[in-house]
Amino acid sequence: MKAPGYFLTVDGPGGVGKSTTVTAITHRLREAGHTVHPTTEPSGSALGIATRRLAQEVRGTALALLVAADRHHHLDTEIRPHLAAGHTVVCDRYLASSLVLQRLDGVPAEFIRAINTGITLPDLAVVLTAPAPTITRRLHTRGSHHRFEDDPDNVTRELDLYEQAITTLQDMAIPVLRLDTDTITPASVAAAIVHATGITSARVTPDHVPPPEQRTWTPPPQSSTYTSSSATETRSSCPNAAAPTGMADGTPPPANSTPGRH
After folding, report:
1. Quick one: which of 17, 19, 211, 233 has the fewest CB in 10 Å?
2. How far is the C-alpha of 174 from the C-alpha of 165, rounded, in Å?
3. DSSP 3-state of 255
4. What is the pLDDT of residues 4-43, one digit of tens each?
């Protein structure tokens, strides 16, 4: 059975504005009356803090297992309890980041999928992106946050892997919203994401959980994309085998945002 809350994840390369976007989404949804729990991965638990610290020296399969272990612990101790309470959970990095960063470390996608078996799938997975020159410039200005951002040559490869991750998520029947942050403001990015959730009219609090039809994700009106019947199915756990294909992403209000691949 699907938990009564709403699970939103935000992924993308460094320098695309994930943390700023999560803060803006949280603010908008709280203003709309939602009880929102923002979080991040690696998590703030002892395991997550250790994973973040060790990521500078631990590589490949060992790091992938640490990240997956932290995710399972994060779900059990933080994300699922909030969803069960009817809260909206907004997570800065989730499965898409694993499908990219661990592959940059040489870990096969099939292995990454396998060690994430049983995770809770998001109601909407947002992937933020930008052209490689924009990301390179932003990283130079901001500075590197981890070793994956140290090599400028990684930017193009990372962008390509995120496009592949979008396809993988859609194959798992996860709704995906892809947004180019190069030419739209952080406020517009947050507005597009909140619109795509379709839950802003609901007032989600521990004492008032909207019926299922108010929580299911649908693309905005007059979207040029399509939606398969799996878009309105209940949240499931990540299967070990491939799931049905054909999940569409939503087209956000800004005209210069772009849809995910099909």
Report:
1. 211
2. 11
3. coil
4. 899 999 999 988 889 999 999 999 999 999 999 999 999 9
